[in-house]
Amino acid sequence: MTALAAIIHAGLAAAWVGGMAYSLFVVQPKLRRYFGSDEHGREALTMMIAAGNRWKVLGLIAVIAASGLVLLWRTSSPLWIHLVKATLLLGATAIFWYVSWRHWPRRVFATRAELPNYQSRLRTLALVMLGLTGTAFALGVAATHS
Protein backbone atom coordinates (compact mmCIF):
# COMPACT_ATOMS: atom_id res chain seq x y z
CA MET A 1 0.00 0.00 0.00
CA THR A 2 2.78 2.45 0.88
CA ALA A 3 4.70 1.79 -2.35
CA LEU A 4 1.57 2.29 -4.46
CA ALA A 5 0.74 5.54 -2.63
CA ALA A 6 4.32 6.75 -3.13
CA ILE A 7 4.24 5.93 -6.86
CA ILE A 8 0.91 7.72 -7.31
CA HIS A 9 1.99 10.68 -5.19
CA ALA A 10 5.39 11.17 -6.83
CA GLY A 11 4.13 10.36 -10.32
CA LEU A 12 1.30 12.88 -10.26
CA ALA A 13 3.46 15.51 -8.57
CA ALA A 14 6.08 15.03 -11.29
CA ALA A 15 3.37 15.28 -13.95
CA TRP A 16 2.10 18.55 -12.47
CA VAL A 17 5.55 20.10 -12.12
CA GLY A 18 6.62 18.82 -15.54
CA GLY A 19 3.44 20.02 -17.23
CA MET A 20 3.82 23.51 -15.82
CA ALA A 21 7.52 23.69 -16.73
CA TYR A 22 6.83 22.43 -20.26
CA SER A 23 4.07 24.98 -20.75
CA LEU A 24 6.11 27.87 -19.37
CA PHE A 25 9.45 27.16 -20.98
CA VAL A 26 8.54 25.34 -24.22
CA VAL A 27 4.92 25.86 -25.32
CA GLN A 28 4.43 29.54 -24.43
CA PRO A 29 7.69 30.76 -26.02
CA LYS A 30 6.97 28.75 -29.17
CA LEU A 31 3.47 30.20 -29.36
CA ARG A 32 4.94 33.71 -29.09
CA ARG A 33 7.45 32.93 -31.87
CA TYR A 34 4.94 31.20 -34.13
CA PHE A 35 2.22 33.85 -33.90
CA GLY A 36 4.57 36.84 -33.76
CA SER A 37 2.47 39.99 -33.78
CA ASP A 38 -0.80 38.04 -34.17
CA GLU A 39 -1.91 38.41 -30.54
CA HIS A 40 -5.47 37.39 -31.36
CA GLY A 41 -4.38 34.09 -32.92
CA ARG A 42 -2.06 33.30 -30.01
CA GLU A 43 -4.76 34.06 -27.46
CA ALA A 44 -7.29 31.93 -29.33
CA LEU A 45 -4.96 28.91 -29.34
CA THR A 46 -3.95 29.48 -25.72
CA MET A 47 -7.60 29.55 -24.67
CA MET A 48 -8.34 26.40 -26.66
CA ILE A 49 -5.42 24.59 -25.02
CA ALA A 50 -6.49 25.72 -21.53
CA ALA A 51 -10.22 25.03 -21.96
CA GLY A 52 -11.55 22.34 -19.65
CA ASN A 53 -8.32 21.80 -17.74
CA ARG A 54 -9.37 23.26 -14.40
CA TRP A 55 -11.25 20.16 -13.21
CA LYS A 56 -8.49 17.82 -14.39
CA VAL A 57 -5.91 19.77 -12.43
CA LEU A 58 -8.14 19.95 -9.35
CA GLY A 59 -8.57 16.17 -9.56
CA LEU A 60 -4.80 15.79 -9.85
CA ILE A 61 -4.30 18.02 -6.78
CA ALA A 62 -6.89 16.02 -4.82
CA VAL A 63 -5.15 12.71 -5.58
CA ILE A 64 -1.74 14.21 -4.71
CA ALA A 65 -3.17 15.40 -1.39
CA ALA A 66 -4.93 12.09 -0.63
CA SER A 67 -1.87 10.01 -1.46
CA GLY A 68 0.20 12.41 0.67
CA LEU A 69 -2.10 11.71 3.61
CA VAL A 70 -1.62 7.97 3.10
CA LEU A 71 2.15 8.50 3.09
CA LEU A 72 1.94 10.64 6.22
CA TRP A 73 0.15 7.81 7.96
CA ARG A 74 2.33 5.01 6.56
CA THR A 75 5.90 6.39 6.55
CA SER A 76 8.37 7.44 9.17
CA SER A 77 9.67 10.57 7.46
CA PRO A 78 9.70 13.69 9.66
CA LEU A 79 6.33 15.33 10.20
CA TRP A 80 7.70 18.79 9.38
CA ILE A 81 8.41 17.73 5.79
CA HIS A 82 4.78 16.68 5.30
CA LEU A 83 3.53 19.92 6.87
CA VAL A 84 5.74 22.07 4.66
CA LYS A 85 4.74 20.08 1.55
CA ALA A 86 1.06 20.46 2.49
CA THR A 87 1.51 24.20 2.96
CA LEU A 88 3.23 24.51 -0.42
CA LEU A 89 0.46 22.46 -2.06
CA LEU A 90 -2.19 24.68 -0.45
CA GLY A 91 -0.39 27.78 -1.73
CA ALA A 92 -0.16 26.39 -5.26
CA THR A 93 -3.82 25.33 -5.09
CA ALA A 94 -4.85 28.81 -3.96
CA ILE A 95 -3.00 30.36 -6.90
CA PHE A 96 -4.56 27.82 -9.25
CA TRP A 97 -8.01 28.68 -7.87
CA TYR A 98 -7.36 32.40 -8.38
CA VAL A 99 -6.09 31.86 -11.93
CA SER A 100 -8.99 29.55 -12.84
CA TRP A 101 -11.91 31.47 -11.35
CA ARG A 102 -10.73 35.09 -11.26
CA HIS A 103 -7.77 35.80 -13.52
CA TRP A 104 -8.70 33.67 -16.55
CA PRO A 105 -12.30 34.92 -16.91
CA ARG A 106 -11.03 38.49 -16.75
CA ARG A 107 -8.36 37.71 -19.33
CA VAL A 108 -10.94 36.23 -21.70
CA PHE A 109 -12.83 39.54 -21.71
CA ALA A 110 -9.76 41.81 -21.60
CA THR A 111 -9.32 44.54 -24.16
CA ARG A 112 -6.27 44.57 -26.42
CA ALA A 113 -4.70 47.19 -24.16
CA GLU A 114 -5.30 45.09 -21.00
CA LEU A 115 -4.15 41.77 -22.45
CA PRO A 116 -0.36 42.19 -22.06
CA ASN A 117 -0.84 42.89 -18.34
CA TYR A 118 -2.91 39.71 -17.92
CA GLN A 119 -0.38 37.67 -19.87
CA SER A 120 2.47 38.96 -17.75
CA ARG A 121 0.58 38.40 -14.51
CA LEU A 122 -0.29 34.83 -15.53
CA ARG A 123 3.36 34.10 -16.26
CA THR A 124 4.34 35.41 -12.82
CA LEU A 125 1.62 33.36 -11.10
CA ALA A 126 2.63 30.25 -13.06
CA LEU A 127 6.28 30.72 -12.06
CA VAL A 128 5.29 31.02 -8.40
CA MET A 129 3.13 27.88 -8.69
CA LEU A 130 6.03 26.06 -10.33
CA GLY A 131 8.33 27.17 -7.52
CA LEU A 132 5.90 25.98 -4.86
CA THR A 133 5.21 22.62 -6.47
CA GLY A 134 8.84 22.07 -7.41
CA THR A 135 9.94 22.75 -3.84
CA ALA A 136 7.29 20.37 -2.50
CA PHE A 137 8.49 17.71 -4.95
CA ALA A 138 12.13 18.22 -3.89
CA LEU A 139 11.11 17.90 -0.22
CA GLY A 140 9.34 14.65 -1.05
CA VAL A 141 12.52 13.31 -2.61
CA ALA A 142 14.50 14.48 0.42
CA ALA A 143 12.02 12.77 2.75
CA THR A 144 12.78 9.42 1.16
CA HIS A 145 16.42 9.83 2.09
CA SER A 146 15.91 10.90 5.72
Describe the structure.
With 146 residues, this protein is mostly helical. The chain has one domain (2-143). 87% of the residues lie in helices and 0% in strands. It is built from five helices and no strands. It has helices spanning 2-35, 39-50, 53-74, 79-108, 115-143. α3 packs antiparallel against α4 (79-108). The longest helix has 34 residues, at 2-35. The radius of gyration is 17 Å and the shape is elongated. The protein starts with a helix and ends with a helix. 14% of the residues are buried. It comes from Kribbella deserti. The chain crosses the membrane at residues 6-27, 55-73, 79-101, 122-143. Keywords: Membrane, Transmembrane, Transmembrane helix. This is Copper resistance protein D domain-containing protein.
